[in-house]
What we know:
- The chain is α/β, with parallel strands linked by helices.
- It has a single domain, classed as Dehydroquinase, class II (Rossmann fold), CATH 3.40.50.9100.
- Helices cover 34% and strands 18% of the residues.
- Helix 3 (54-67) packs parallel to helix 4 (83-90).
- 34% of the residues are buried.
- The model has no long low-confidence stretch (mean pLDDT 97).
- 1,3,4-trihydroxy-5-OXO-cyclohexanecarboxylic acid binds at residues 11, 74, 76-77, 79, 100-102, 104, 111.
Amino acid sequence: MPHILILNGPNLNRLGKREPDVYGRDTLTDLEQKLFQFAEGIQIELTFFQSNHEGDLIDALHEAEEQYDGIVLNPGAFSHYSYAIRDAVAAISIPVIEVHLSNPHAREEFRHRSVIAPVARGQITGLGFEGYKLAICYFMNANNK
Ligand code: DQA
């Protein structure tokens, strides 16, 4: 069974309280529970990690290579400027799918660019929790390595 790391970056631990008009009222725990149930139904094992710290996210990306078949990554605001996270994604051989709850392209100018996107396998934005589910589905196909 594929084992996927769901990696959430800064401020995503504030889901539910943070800008609910943009991100909704569900919490990170709600997201993780929903994804856990969804993935169980399609025979995918998930592990969750969230950090507000760039270095912790980089360590998690490096360590993931040995443990997981792929990563679903929401880098939060690091998406827009962290070359270190971009390099960490480029430095590992398992696929990383970049996910955003909101559609950054429909928001402030500084969110329009992702420095992660060019090294990610793909990007899903603006679909809320569904975006994570769609990213998980990608790993149902064993050829998507
Ligand atoms: C986000 C979008 C980013 O621009 C923002 O900084 C976040 C959340 C999203 O999921 O929509 O923290 O990654």
